[in-house]
Design goal:
Elements (H helix, E strand, L loop, with lengths): L2 H10 L6 H22 L5 E5 L9 H15 L3 E4 L5 H11 L4 E5 L14 E4 L3 H10 L1 E6 L4 H15 L8 E3 L6 H12 L11 E3 L3 H14 L23
Parallel strand pairs: 1-2, 1-5, 2-3, 3-4, 5-6, 6-7
Helix pairs in contact: 3-4, 3-8
């Protein structure tokens, strides 16, 4: 995130400002959305993979992320991630292993985030909330790999939107049962304490089995619809072009 945008975010969260300052911030957000719409309009149906930027290539979670993404991409879905290193890179790399389309919605952070080399197309976004909306907008399923605050933020916000029927009942998968065991225990505790409904537990598939993920996506997104997803075609009058694979 550049220094100007970082300062603008901090000032925005300080409370009411002048009307002109609020308008400028709002226009900046709209411009970010329009820039992303322009770049991502033709990426087709996606599955978004959330995960940590901090795992290296030699970590087992990198390997399983790459493999599950390859399997999903082989079904014809575009793999979309936050565009950075670590498990995001592994997911995009898995898409390329299956000769699938690989997309990133990147946010530049000074200490860790830079777009990975396995992206057919990416867009740099200055605002986290804009980035999260874009990751959801183009996706029909979500795979949650081990990660930190950002991954859990993406997971719980998406889950809340599904629970409250703000978005459709898209499949959500948690992988890495050992890593997430305390999180799973807490989710079950919420059901016991009735802060969520028992039926809300059915919104999540928890598994380490890649075939379970594939079967869920086939059942809910392919077999159930019984038709191919249509891709929007570029229009030459608007200077739009197909996305070329790496």
């Amino acid at each position: 995130m550049n220094n100007y945008t970082d300062a603008a975010d901090k000032k925005f969260l300080e409370g009411p400002r002048s009307r002109w300052s609020e308008l400028k911030y709002t226009i900046g957000v709209v411009i970010q959305f329009l820039k992303a719409f322009r770049k991502l309009h033709f990426i087709g149906p996606c599955v978004t993979v959330f995960g940590s930027a901090r795992y290296n290539e030699d970590h087992p979670y990198y390997d399983i992320t790459r493999k599950v993404s390859e399997k999903i991409a082989s079904l014809g879905f575009t793999i979309m991630t936050g565009g950075g290193p670590g498990l995001m890179e592994a997911a995009n790399r898995g898409a390329k292993d299956a000769n699938g389309l690989s997309i990133g919605c990147n946010i530049v952070l000074p200490h860790e985030q830079k777009e990975n080399p396995y992206l057919d197309r990416y867009v740099n976004i200055d605002y986290f909330f804009v980035r999260k909306e874009l990751l959801r907008k183009y996706s029909l399923a979500f795979v949650v790999m081990p990660g930190g605050f950002g991954t859990l933020d993406e997971f719980f916000e998406t889950l809340t939107l599904i629970q409250t029927h703000k978005i459709k009942d898209f499949p959500i998968v948690i992988m890495g049962k050992e890593y997430h065991k305390d999180l799973i225990e807490h989710i079950n505790k919420m059901a016991i304490e009735k802060t969520i409904g028992v039926n809300d537990l059915d919104l999540i598939l928890i598994t380490d089995n890649i075939e379970d993920v594939v079967d869920l996506i086939k059942t809910k997104l392919i077999d159930k619809s019984n038709k191919k997803f249509e891709k929007i075609k570029p229009h030459w009058l608007l200077g739009e072009k197909e996305i070329n694979k790496l």
